[in-house]
Design goal:
9 strands; 184 residues; 2 domains; two-stranded antiparallel sheet; HP1_YO34; alpha+beta
Length: 184
C-alpha cells in the first residue's frame, strides 16, 4: 500500500474495505422490511499491521503521515495505491476517525490499526453535479440572429385587436351553446 510516495509497512498488513449505505426503515413500528435509500456514503478502508518494537522510527514515520496537514490545516489527501482500494475504485484517501497503537508483548511488536476514508467519492461528485446543475453548454447549429431581426419578426406576429374580439365572440357563443345544452 502506498500513500503518495510513502510505502506503508507491510508487516502482517491487512486491508478491509467497506461501502456504507445510508437508509431508514419505512416500517415504523411494524415488522416491515422496506427501507428508504438515502445514498451511498464514501468508502472506507480499515488497515491493520504490526511494527516490531525494535523499529520505533517506522512507527514514528507512519504517525507523521497520519498527522500531516496542508497549509490550510486540513488533513492531507493521499493518492492511494493498493489492491483492495483499486478494486473498490478508491483513488484518494484521508486518515479518519481513529489511529490505534497497542503493544503485543508475545512477539515484541505494536499492533497498529487505522481507517482511511475515501476523499471526493464518485457519489459525492454525482451529488455535487446535481446540486450545482453544471451541465456542458449546449450549442445550437446555425447562424446567430441579431436583435434587429427579432424585433421585425415580433412585429409581424402581432395580431390586430379586431382579430382578438372576433375570437372572443366566437368562444362566448360556443360556451353559451354548451351551457344551454347542459341545462336541458
Amino acid at each position: 500500500m502506498n500513500l503518495n510516495e510513502y510505502k506503508v509497512p507491510e508487516y502482517s498488513l491487512k486491508v478491509r474495505g467497506q461501502m456504507p449505505y445510508d437508509s431508514d426503515p419505512l416500517g415504523g413500528q411494524t415488522s416491515g422490511s422496506s427501507r428508504a435509500h438515502k445514498g451511498i456514503k464514501p468508502k472506507m478502508l480499515f488497515v491493520s499491521l504490526q511494527i516490531p518494537m525494535n523499529e520505533p522510527v517506522v512507527l514514528e514515520r507512519l504517525l507523521a503521515v497520519a498527522e500531516a496537514t496542508d497549509a490550510a490545516g486540513a488533513l492531507v489527501v493521499y493518492d492511494l495505491q493498493d489492491n483492495t482500494g483499486n478494486a473498490m475504485k478508491i483513488r484518494q484517501v484521508q486518515f479518519g476517525e481513529v489511529f490505534t497503537v497497542s503493544e503485543k508483548e508475545s512477539v515484541r511488536a505494536w499492533d497498529i490499526s487505522f481507517v482511511l476514508h475515501e476523499y471526493y467519492s464518485v457519489p459525492e461528485k454525482k451529488e455535487q453535479r446535481m446540486t450545482t446543475g453544471d451541465a456542458p453548454p449546449q450549442v445550437a447549429a446555425g447562424a446567430t440572429v441579431s436583435g434587429g431581426e427579432i424585433e421585425s419578426q415580433s412585429q409581424e406576429v402581432k395580431l390586430s385587436p379586431s382579430y382578438w374580439k372576433a375570437a372572443l365572440d366566437k368562444l362566448e357563443s360556443y360556451l353559451d351553446e354548451s351551457n344551454a345544452e347542459g341545462a336541458q
